[in-house]
C-alpha cells in the first residue's frame, strides 16, 4: 500500500457522519475456572470483574469517533440501566447522544459474554426483537431529520433487531438531497435498502441474499452484480475474510479485488463494523473506493487481532501502513502476484519486470532498481530460489536465503511486488506476467535477454539499465575474503 494514503487520515476538516441502526450494549463478564460444578456437568466461573462496551451501531460510532469524525447516532435504547450506560459510553467516546430515542416498552438490547483466559464460554442475549411502535418510529424519523441536515455521509448499521423499519430506511436512502448512504446489511431482502449508495455484506450475508455459493471469484462478481441491480445501488463491496474484499460499481465499469492484510486472527467480533467505519470516514473526506477499501483492510486486520469489539484509531492504521508497506504486502506467491497484476492493469498501470539473485545487497542494486522503477508504475521482482542460485553460482551460495533476500528487497521503496522462481531462467514467470517493460543490466547486451522475444511480441520493450562499476555481490564477497577471485 502506498504510504500516500495516510494523508486521507488527516483531512483539513473532520467529516460529520450520522450512524443509524440497532444499538447493543456488550457486557463482558471475566473470571477464572478451577472446578466443575457438583450440580451439573458444567464449569464454575469465579467472576472477578465485568466491562461494558458499545455494540451494534454503537461500535460503528465508537470507531468513527476514534478516527476523529464528528459522530452522531440515531438509535433506540430502553428506559433502563443499559440505556444509561450507552449514553455514558457514547459521551465518553466523543459521540453526540442527542439522537437517542427512549422506548419505554422495550429494554436495551444487551449481550453478555462470559470469558475466561480470553476465551468466550457462553453468550447471553437479552433482547426484544420486533417492529417499533408508531410513536417510537415517528420519533426516530424526527431525530433523523434533525441530525442529518449537514452530515457528509450516513451509515446504516442493521443488526436485524427492528430499529430500521421500512419508513426509516426510505427516509435515509431515498429522501431528496440525502447524503451518501453506506449500509451494513442484514437478512435476505436487500431491496429494503433500495437507493443507498454502497452495500457491504460479508460472504455469508451475500450468499444468503442471493442464494449463490461464493466459491470462485466469478461467483463473487455475480453476487455483487445481482445485489447492485436489485437494490438500485451505486456499488457493492463484499467482504471475504482472509480473501480480502471485492467491489463492483453498479454499471460494471469498475471493479477491484483487494487482498486481506495478513494477520493472526484472535477474535473476528466487530471486524465488519471497523470496515464500514473506515470506508465511511475515508469516503467522506474524498477517497475513491479503491483507496477506502485498502485502508479498510488495514483496519479490519487490526481488529481481528484484538479481543472483543475495539475501536481502531488513525494512529493504529498509520502504524500498520508503515509496518506493512515495507514488506508483508509485497512478497507474494505466483498466483497472488498474477491476481494483483491483473488488478493493477485494470487501473491502467504499467508493469515493469526484472529479476536476479540479489544475494548480497549493495548500492549498485539500489541504483539499478531505482532506474527500473522509473520505466513504469509497478516494479515486479523475480527472485531466484536458493537451489536455483546454487546451480548458477555454485556451492556456498546464496549467502542469504531466498526468504531473507525478499524481505530485504521489500524494504526498498521503489520495489512494488516480489515473487520467487525455481527455474534457471525467469522465462516462465515473464510469460505469465507479460510485462510492458523488461529490464536487465547493460551487461546482458551480448548475452541475450531471456524473455525479450515474448515481451516484444506482446507489444512491450526491453531496457538495458546502467550498472554501477565496482559493485556486485561477487566483488563484495571477494573483498571480504569469502570467495576466491575467478
Radius of gyration: 27 Å
CATH C-level category of the largest domain: Alpha Beta
Helical amount: 25-40%
- The name of the CATH architecture of the largest domain is 3-Layer(aba) Sandwich
What is the global morphology?
elongated
Please count the helical segments: 16
Amino-to-carboxy terminus distance: 42 Å
Question: What do these coordinates show?
Answer:
The chain has 486 residues and is α/β, with parallel strands linked by helices. The chain folds into two domains: 3-324, Ribokinase (UDP-N-acetylmuramoyl-L-alanine:D-glutamate ligase, 3-Layer(aba) Sandwich); 334-479, Rossmann fold. The protein is built from 16 helices and 18 strands. The protein has helices at 57-67, 81-93, 134-147, 166-174, 203-210, 217-231, 271-284, 289-303, 314-326, 334-346, 363-373, 386-393, 402-410, 427-433, 452-457, 473-479, and strands at 16-21, 23-36, 43-56, 70-78, 100-103, 109-116, 119-126, 153-157, 180-184, 198-199, 235-239, 245-249, 255-258, 351-356, 378-384, 417-421, 437-441, 461-465. A nine-stranded mixed beta sheet has the order 5-4-1-8-9-10-11-12-13, sandwiched between helices. It has a five-stranded parallel beta sheet with strand order 16-15-14-17-18, with helices on both faces. Strand 6 and strand 7 (119-126) form a beta hairpin. Helix 1 (57-67) packs across helix 7. The longest helix has 15 residues, at 217-231. The protein is elongated and about 85 Å long.
What attributes does this structure have?
single chain, 486 residues, alpha/beta, UDP-N-acetylmuramoyl-L-alanine:D-glutamate ligase, Rossmann fold, 2 domains, nine-stranded mixed β-sheet, five-stranded parallel β-sheet, 18 strands, 36% helix
